[in-house]
Write a structure and sequence with these properties.
Radius of gyration: 21 Å
Distance between the termini: 32 Å
Order of helices and strands: HEEHEEEEEEHHEEHH
Shape: elongated
Strand content: 15-25%
Oligomer: single chain
Number of helices: 6
Structural class: alpha+beta
Helix content: 25-40%
Length: 189
């Protein structure tokens, strides 16, 4: 992995996205619009692809076991594919026809799949793809906040940089720098 790609992963992984997370039935969902906007700031060349069958349908599966959607994201020379089942609000697989299932509190119903459900699954799948690049990955790990990754490396000389200096120089110059290299850049300005 190149240093640039690693630095971008660290930048995305370290970003706190909690202000854009919605809670539904005890699960956290990152807004796809915010996720895409933040991702494009780091990877302006990023593109995504929604898999479709020969008929142009963006879902795959079977009426009796359920349906899946597939997306891929390409950025910085990397491509990640991801998949996600089409699920209801209780994370139960949606099928062509409504069905019932038993819980401790009684019988529940999963409604029949709709195009709205498929669209939601595609956009959640896209966010899952972006997490593979680091953005919001901590949410999938069940954490409240991103880790502070202390393995920053100076973009100019390759020396280790503490997280405070890395964050300050990133805000000022767009890269992580050690104090010495940061001072050199200030002197050049």
């Amino acid at each position: 992995m190149s240093k640039e790609i690693r630095d971008k992963f660290v930048e995305l992984y370290s970003k706190n996205v909690n202000n854009y997370v919605e809670q539904k039935n005890g699960l956290a969902y990152l807004s796809w619009a915010y996720a895409w906007a933040e991702f494009k700031k780091v990877y302006p060349d990023a593109t995504y692809f929604v898999a479709k069958d020969a008929d142009g349908k963006c879902y795959f599966g079977d009426e009796s076991i359920g349906y899946m959607v597939y997306t891929s994201v390409t950025a910085g020379g990397l491509s990640y594919e991801m998949w996600l089942p089409v699920m209801d609000n209780n994370n139960k697989s949606m099928k062509l026809n409504a069905y019932k299932y038993q819980t401790r509190s009684g019988e529940k119903t999963v409604e029949a799949i709709t195009m709205f459900d498929i669209n939601k699954a595609v956009m959640r799948c896209l966010v899952k793809n972006l997490a593979m690049f680091g953005l919001g990955l901590y949410i999938y790990a069940g954490e409240d906040l991103p880790e502070d990754i202390n393995e920053y490396v100076c973009a100019d000389c390759g020396k280790a940089v503490d997280s405070n200096m890395a964050q300050r120089t990133f805000k000022k110059f767009g890269v992580h720098l050690c104090q010495e290299c940061g001072m050199k850049r200030i002197d050049k300005q």
